[in-house]
Amino acid sequence: TKYKKGMKKTRNTFSGRINDLIARYRKVDEDFFEELEEVLITADVGVMTVMDLIDELKMEVKRSNIKETAEVKAVISEKMVELYYGEDEEGLEYLNIQEDDLSVLLVVGVNGVGKTTSIGKLAHQLKQQGKNVVLAAGDTFRAGAIEQLEEWGKRADVEVIKQSEGSDPAAVIYDGIQAAKSRKADVLICDTAGRLQNKVNLMKELSKVKRVIEREIPGAPHEVLIALDATTGQNALSQAKTFSEATNVTGIILTKLDGTAKGGIVLAIRQELDIPVKYVGLGEQIEDLQPFDPHAFVYGLFA
Ligand code: GDP
């Protein structure tokens, strides 16, 4: 139901247009597929992904001898879920969290995408699962970033390790690791800067932070999560590519899915980047973060 509510915009536009299409055509033909293609592309599903999807649909329609457009709807959702999973096994992509040891999550992303908010939500969720969580305020560049993280720390009731604005992010993360170790924390979530204006420096900074984490804790970081803003469409894709070049991104937090009618971007991201979407942001409140569930997502599109 959180999906249903959070994806209202996408659902209204998307399923409205699909239903309209089905009602207008009734019989499955080439024009129907062409219009369907357009609806999917408008929802930011991504041109390549749409092509694959339409091919799959056509094959299925032939195989199952489907004549009525109304019958195609169920096939579309089925194929979308299949497309998301690809060769992988089905199931939710949970965070790689150690059972009895400290897990380090590094969170990256461009300013304004909802990185800090997502860290706050994630801290809250992990805390509710009984984990002892510490945050490290690694965005020492953006004015107000540290205070904002502290604010979220209060809300989630977790400790925030920080230094002053302008200090070395790697030093802050180092402090965070020591604090997390001495408090026997389960999870350390590291915030990082997101000024893409100076890409080279940012990527250097991230590499340095990552090296510190790797040096201090073998096997860490256990996740490098990138926060991407669903409302920015293809920009989100190019941001993910940029960060992937500098660091091995293991998962995506797709924010502001509630703020867009183009939720199809999830499928494009999965297809074009092959990085799993682990969480989606469905609002501004602390509870508005959901593990990404492709079934619930696609159901949310059509419900
Ligand atoms: P950062 O610069 O990446 O750390 O971004 P912030 O965490 O400060 O978020 C930027 C804005 O996006 C804030 O106004 C947040 O409330 C808002 N925001 C973050 N996540 C979501 C979301 O899932 N849905 C909505 N509607 N707004 C969000």
From TrEMBL:
Any one biological process term the GO annotation gives: SRP-dependent cotranslational protein targeting to membrane
Keyword entries, A-Z: Cell membrane, Cytoplasm, GTP-binding, Hydrolase, Membrane, Nucleotide-binding, Receptor
The SRP54-type proteins GTP-binding domain, residue ranges: 276-289
Top class in the EC scheme: hydrolase
Entry-linked CDD domains: FtsY
Entry's Gene Ontology cellular component terms: cytoplasm; plasma membrane
UniProt-listed InterPro entries: AAA+_ATPase, P-loop_NTPase, Signal_recog_particl_SRP54_hlx, SR_rcpt_FtsY, SRP/SRP_N, SRP54_GTPase_dom, SRP54_N_sf
The enzyme's E.C. designation: 3.6.5.4
Compartment(s): Cell membrane; Cytoplasm
Classification via Pfam families: SRP54, SRP54_N
GO molecular function per UniProt: GTP binding; GTPase activity; signal recognition particle binding
Functional description taken from the UniProt entry: Involved in targeting and insertion of nascent membrane proteins into the cytoplasmic membrane. Acts as a receptor for the complex formed by the signal recognition particle (SRP) and the ribosome-nascent chain (RNC).
Protein name in UniProt: Signal recognition particle receptor FtsY
Organism per entry: Cerasibacillus terrae
Gene name, Swiss-Prot/TrEMBL: ftsY
